[in-house]
Amino acid sequence: MCGLAGFLQEPPLDGEDAARLLTSMTTAIVYRGPDSEGAWLDSAAGIALGHRRLAIVDTSPSGHQPMVSHSGRYVLAFNGEIYNHADLRTLLGQAGQAPAWRGHSDTETLAAGFDAWGIAPTIGRAVGMFAIAIWDRRERVLTLLRDRLGEKPLYYGWQGAGPGKAFLFGSELKALRAHPACLGDVSRDAVVQLMRHGHVGEENAIYEGLHKLPAGAMVEISLAHPEPLVSRYWSATEIACRSAAARMSGSSEDMVAALEALLTDAVGRQMVADVPLGAFLSGGIDSSLVVALMQRQSTQPVKTFSIGFHDPRYNEAEFAKRVAAHLGTDHVELYVGDQELRDIVPRLPEIYDEPFADCSQIPTVLVSKLACAKVTVALSGDGGDELFCGYDRYRQGAALMRVLSAVPRPLRTAASYAARTLPKAFWDTVLNPFLQVASGKEPNGQRLHRLADYARSGSVEELHRKLVSRWRFPEAVVIDGREPVGLLTPGKFNFGALCDAERMMMLDMLTYLPDDILTKVDRASMWNSLECRAPFLDHRVVEFAWSLPLDMKHRGGQSKWALRQILYKHVPRELVDRPKMGFEVPIAAWLRGPLRSWAEALLAPQRLQREGFFYAAPLRRKWDEHISGVCNWGPQLWNVLMFQSWLDGNQVAKPPVGIKREA
Predict the structure, then answer these.
(1) What's the rounded Cα separation, in Å, for the pair 142 and 220?
(2) Separation CA 229–CA 213 (nearest Å)
(3) CA-CA distance, 558 to 152, in Å (whole number)?
(4) CA 65/CA 39 separation, integer angstroms
(5) How far is C-alpha 313 from the chain's CA centre?
C-alpha cells in the first residue's frame, strides 16, 4: 500500500527542478508510504513518476518503486495489493514468459505481466485493489488504472497554461496541489454535490479541471494525443444485469456453501502479508464474519479493534467485545470522549484532503489510529451491505415504491403538498402525543415533511436519490452552483431485470460505496500508515453475489441471509442477531455540546458572506433550529462545516519551496 504522484508536460524537463518538484508532490502524501520514496524521470519524454512506499509484501529493496519492467518497456508506480500475484507468476512460468525474478513483490509480477500479456489483459487476470500509473517508454503513453470497485483513489487532469501546462496525477489532491501548475480553483458545482451527499462524487473533484478516475476504468494520455481517453475494463452494472438474467439455481445449502468457500479464499488471500495483520470489528454481521474466517485460518489470535461511545444508542463496542471473546481474538477497544472529539475534528480536513462529511469518519480515523499501533494491515467488512441487501432503505424503499405505485401520482403530489404546507411545528403538536421521539433523532414534524417528499417520487431511482440526499435542494444554499448530472440522475440507467431493491443496491455500489465508504476508510487508514483490505470487494465475490437470487440476501425479514448462515457456524445467533446500528455517531448532540463553539465560528454570518460560497440566511436558520431542538439538522450542517473547515487550510495553496508559481 503506497502513494503515487507524477506529471507529464512538454519536454525537455530540467532534471534538477523536476526531481525537486516530484519530491514535493510525494512528500505531501508521505504518510501513505513512510518506508521509502522513489522517483523516475525521463526529461526527454517529459514524464515524471513518484512513489511513497508502505512495504507490505516483500519489504526488501527488490520491491522499490517506481519499477522498470524486465524488458525495460514499462515503468510503473503502484498503490495497492494483488492478492493472486503468486498465481500470475505460475501462469507466466507455465507459458515460459517468466523473467528472472528479483524478489517476490506483486509490483514485479504486474510488470512481468505487462511485458508478457499487455496492460489490459494483465489487469483482467488480477484480483486486488489498486491505483497504477504506467509509462510505456516505447509508445510514450501514460496509462492510469483504478481497481474494479474503487478501493484506491486516483486523481488526474490538465492544469496551467502555456509553457507551464502539465498533466498531473496522484493518489490525493495534496500531491497535485504541490505542483505550481495546479490552480486550486474551487468548483462550485462540486460544492453543490457535497451538500447533497456529503462527498464530492463520481468523476468530480473539488477543484476545477481535476477529476477522479472511475472505479473499473483506465485512462490513456500522451503529449501527441493530450485529450484523456477513458475506457472501462470492468463494469459492475454489466455484471449485475447479466447475472440477473441468469440467476443461480439449486438449493440454498449449496449456494451458501459455494459462497462460504469463495469468502474463505478471499479472506485467506488477503491475510498474506510480511507485516503484522489484524481486523476492524464492530460486532455486526460483516466484520464478525470476516474475523471468524480469519481466525479459522490463523494459528494465533487475530488482533481486532473497535471504537465505542458512552451513549448506549450508538455504542457497538459491547457487541464487538462479546464476539471477540467468543472467537478468541486479541481485542482492543477505545471509547470516544469529548477530548478525543475536540482533538480530531479540526484535523479532519487535513486527513480527508477533499471536503468529506460522513460523520462516521471520526470513529474511522480513531479506530485506524488504534490499530496502527499494533498492525500494518487491517481487514474490514466493507461492501457487505451493498452486496447482500444490508441497508434498511433497500427493503423499505422497495416496499414504499410498491405502495406509491398503487396511488395515482397527481393524488400523491397533492397530498404531499398539503402535508408540507403545514409547518413542522404543527405536526409536532399533532403527532407528539402518539409518537415518541428518541433523543438525537428527527422530530415528528420534520420526519413527516421528509416522508411527504418521498411520496412524490415517480420511480425507485428518484426515491433512492431522495433517500441518500442530505440537502434536497442544494443549489438553494450554494451561490452560483449547479448540480452536475451524474449516476444518480433519474433515467440515467437501464437496469434490465433488476428488481427495485437491487436497483438501489447497484446505485450505491456505483456511488455511495466508492465515494463515501471506501473514501472514508482509505483516507483514515492511510493517514495512519495502515493498509485496509476488504474481502467482500474481491471482484469474484462481487460477481458471485450478483448471481444469487434476492431471497438469498433477504429472507424472513432478515438482511444478509446467506452471510448469517455462514456466521452462525462460528458465532451464536444471540451475539449477532440484533437491529443494524451502522457506524453512527451522535453528531446532533455533539453539535449542541462539545462542538458548538467550533461550529458557531465556522457558521458566522460575516464569514459566510465574506467567503461567498453559501447563502448565509438558510444556513443560519437551520443552525438556530438545530440548537433549539426544533429540528435535527446534524447531517446537513456537518456537510457545511466540513467544507468551511476544509476551506481554512486548503483554499489557498502554497507553492513548494524553490518552485515559482506561474502568474
Answers:
(1) 6
(2) 11
(3) 32
(4) 8
(5) 25
The residues that bridge with 594 in the sheet, in sequence order, are none
Amino acid 410 reads P
| Reported pTM | 0.93
For residue 327, how many other CB atoms are within 10 A of its CB?
Answer: 21
- Checking if the pLDDT of 657 tops 60, the result is no
Residue 613 is placed in which grid cell?
460560497
Give mean pLDDT, residues 540-544. 97
Identify any residues that bridge with 219 across adjacent strands, giving them in sequence order.
Answer: 144, 230
Q: How many other CB atoms are there within 10 angstroms of residue 238's CB atom?
A: 12
Q: What are phi and psi of 349, to 5 degrees?
A: -60, -35
Average pLDDT, integer, range 580-609? 88
Strand partners, 204: 211
Q: Are 107 and 98 in contact (CB under 8 A)?
A: no
Distance, in Å, from the CA atom of 173 to the CA atom of 178, rounded to the nearest integer, reads 9
**Contact assessment for residue 20 and residue 659, using Cβ atoms and an 8 Å cutoff:** yes
Interatomic CA distance for residues 494 and 433, integer angstroms: 45
Cα gap 301→304, rounded to integer Å: 9
Under DSSP, the state recorded for 485 is P
Percent of the chain surpassing pLDDT 70: 97
How many residues does this entry show for the chain?
Answer: 663
β-partners of residue 331 are 304
Confidence of residue 654 (pLDDT cuts 50, 70, 90): very low
Which three three-digit cell numbers place residue 548? 444469487
Inform me whether the pLDDT recorded for 403 exceeds 80. Answer: yes
- Are 204 and 212 spatial neighbours (Cβ–Cβ below 8 Å)? yes
For range 537-566, the mean pLDDT: 96
**Confidence band for 312, pLDDT divided at 50, 70 and 90:** confident
Distance of alpha carbon 473 from alpha carbon 452, whole angstroms: 15
Average pLDDT, integer, range 98-126: 97
Q: How far apart are the first and last CA of the chain?
A: 36
Q: Which set of grid coordinates corresponds to residue 270?
A: 488477503
**Rounded to an integer, what is the distance from CA 195 to the centroid of its chain?**
17
